[in-house]
Amino acid sequence: MDDIMNAEQTFPRANRLLRCAGSYMNGLKIIHIAGTNGKETVSTFLSSILQHTEPQRQKVLVGRYITSFLLNDREAISINNESISLAEYSEIENHLIELDKSLNLQCNAIELLTSMAFVYFAKKSCQWCIIETGLGGKWNPSNLIPPQNKVCCAITNVGISDEKFLCDALSLITYKCLEQDVRTIPFAVLDGSNDELVRNAISRECSNVGCKLHITDPSLDDCSVRTDSWGTLETPQLPYNEEDQIFNLRVAIGVLDFLKKEGKICISKDQLSKGLISVDWPRSLHQLDYCYETNSGKKIALLLDNANNAKAAQNLASHLRTKYGDTPLTFVVAITMGKKLPPLLDPLIRTQDHVIVTRFGSVLGMPWIQSLEPTHLFTFIKDRYTKNVDMQPDLHSVWTFLEASRLQTMVPVIVCGSLYLCKELLYQHNCHLRV
Hints:
Blueprint: H1 7-10, H2 12-21, E1 30-34, H3 39-50, E2 62-65, E3 77-79, E4 82-83, H4 86-103, H5 109-123, E5 128-132, E6 150-155, H6 167-177, H7 179-182, E7 187-190, H8 196-209, E8 212-215, E9 224-226, E10 232-234, H9 244-261, H10 269-277, E11 286-291, E12 299-305, H11 310-324, E13 330-333, H12 341-345, E14 354-357, H13 374-384, E15 389-391, H14 395-405, E16 413-416, H15 419-434
Parallel strand pairs: 1-5, 1-6, 2-5, 6-7, 7-8, 12-16, 13-14, 13-16, 14-15
Antiparallel strand pairs: 2-3, 3-4, 9-10, 11-12
């Protein structure tokens, strides 16, 4: 078996940057969230509940680093659900950029942002840090975390089997990429709703390296969560009203159950319930007069909402129905590969609506994230929802098509389905304005 690829090998530039910046990793207790679907939900559950641990002689600070931010990089770094301030962000960023230049490291944007998160959490003396970075194998930013700082890893639904990937590709992703996580931590929690091939691959790897693995209950018979620390938890009213959320909740509770048994947290069943009740689910709905051509000043009214999970899609649909009723709407949609389509599209698309399917480009620093093929999305929408569907190869061609087809109306065009589509659009918008 290959030697473990540690931070020195996989992120030599960022590792050196952090080392020269100071001993910022010392003392940080880190929970890593891996997987493709449900990471944000699991990390939101954990962030909320860990803030309610006892005794509370002082405020419990829970740092959180995510890759699913939309408007700006500051959204990626937060403590107790509050994003890093612009002043603190700029101070840390400028310091690391100057250090990077002096050392001639040439760190990329992801390496700098990840390093900034660790520096910020250390400066604020966070008791817990939740690092949500997904699947990236040896190039995953989570590999910057020294083994001694990783307390455990939560592996959500990998979500590959639904997309007709070859079995050997699935094995490669689950075995080769996730081995970087389980080989350096004592405990991992795996979503039991994963494909059998995924469960077997991760179980085998954990067994090989001595990592204790807990696989959560895949049953949908009820919404209960069975624990060693608090008995059976009844959760009849989940914050997200979709079946996947019970799976995500069981993963989060599995992590907390381990921490409680290890004496790393002290939390009662009542406080656990309070933590669940106080979960703050982020909303999107960003209105934008999108500048889609350089120098021309041409703009189009858009409503951006990544709507990349069932609840978010339901929230968006509720907003659209309230505001526009039965008025036909125009959607621009791209979806991340591995996502289940019905939960995202069922609440939104109606017979009278017009849908333009497209794709987003490569995601900087995260080559494992890819857009679902537009041809697949086109066929699915046309067969299931509406015949008013068109396909465009990229975002640039979408606006040309909209202008030529005169689909622009007084009602904003809704852009949704993927965070990365929205981020690419915002990036283009800002670039056009700067020229």
